[in-house]
Amino acid sequence: MYAPQPIIVRTLKGVHFTGVIAQNESAQENLVPKGTDPTNGVVSEGLAAGRHTRSRLKSIRITSKENLAWEIWLFGSTLFSTADADTDRFIGFWTFTAADAKQTTLHGGVLDTYFYYYIDGLDVVYQDSDMTGQIHLRLANRSAASKSAGAAGELTVALALEPTEGL
Predict the structure, then answer these.
(1) Which of 124, 135, 146, 148 could form a disulfide with 31 if both were Cys (CB 3.0 to 4.6 A apart)?
(2) For 149-165, what is the mean pLDDT?
């Protein structure tokens, strides 16, 4: 029996979500296939084949220099949310509080550089309605403090997506 293996789609720290995100504001990225953009593409061609990106989200991992409260939102279109409920392609979201973050201590008692957030056991159906092979991702900041720009606020988001042949 074939057991599908998740494919990891991971943002790039110097490319995605690099600006300031104030309290209750968000930034969004259309994560493109590697075949479309060999430099900044992050979606595996194995997942983007057929350009529908049909999959099930199994886990979310955030690696962040700042300990903030995050929300990860998924949409099925480059339009993200719209003013028309018939065309809005909202798929789902997950909330991480600042208390969800873990930071480890390295040898010698020095704290690790990053805060880590993780959730698994998810089974969220994803499909790119635009047929671009992209993952449409929004990152919202729910903390009182703003996310910093550049290296001080660097982070990555990793999604484990299990390819499916249909929904």
Answers:
(1) 135
(2) 94
CATH code for position 22: 2.60.120
Cα dist from 59 to 19, 52, 111, 120, 157, whole Å: 25, 20, 25, 4, 11
**Which residues face 10 on adjacent strands?**
158
Q: Please tell me the distance from the alpha carbon of residue 80 to that of residue 87, in angstroms, as a whole number.
A: 10
- Asked whether residue 82 is domain-assigned, the answer is yes
Domain count, the chain: 1
Q: Per-residue pLDDT for 1 more than 60?
A: no
Q: Helix or strand or coil: residue 79? A: coil
Token pair 């995050």: residue: 70
CA distance 163 to 25: 31
Predicted confidence at residue 123, as pLDDT, reads 94
The two tokens of residue 36 are 């479309």
Residue 124 near residue 75, CB atoms below 8 Å: no
Number of CB atoms found within 10 A of residue 58's CB:
19
133 closest CA partner among 62, 10, 36: 36
